[in-house]
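Good morning,

Attaching, inline, the backbone tokens for the sequence recovery test we're adding to the shared suite. The designed sequence is right after.
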């Protein structure tokens, strides 16, 4: 049986993977006049799929934030207790991120992709602002 630490570790890996794909997308859009749309769509598709699974990695037993505690960045949570108080909102935000990423994975033109990746970054940042603790 998975432990709360296993779930926390898993969601960190998923978030790191999402972040790596976002970095690739944003880097492609910043560095090139002409983006390889097939590659960009693939990155966005992976992000979309990962966001569908992401909220399921937050079972109640992983609500373990403690202020001023020593934390292992790889195994301890930085998720705010507010996430579980407002889980429907958190779940909706992950769903919204998935839908925006899915739309980006279907973008036909670079301008459309750029707009959707920017929107996805905004969705991600707003969720982090609401539910990610920092020391």
């Amino acid at each position: 049986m998975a432990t709360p630490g296993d779930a926390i570790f898993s969601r960190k890996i998923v978030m790191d993977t999402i972040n790596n794909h976002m970095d690739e997308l944003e880097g492609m859009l910043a560095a090139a006049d002409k983006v390889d749309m097939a590659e960009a769509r693939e990155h966005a598709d992976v992000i979309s799929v990962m966001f569908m699974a992401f909220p399921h990695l937050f079972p109640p037993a992983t609500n373990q934030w403690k202020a001023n505690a020593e934390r292992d960045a790889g195994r301890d949570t930085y998720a705010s207790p507010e996430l579980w108080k407002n889980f429907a909102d958190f779940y909706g935000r992950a769903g919204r991120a998935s839908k925006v990423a899915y739309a980006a994975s279907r973008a036909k033109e670079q301008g459309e992709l750029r707009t959707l990746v920017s929107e996805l970054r905004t969705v991600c940042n707003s969720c982090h602002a609401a539910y990610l603790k920092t020391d």
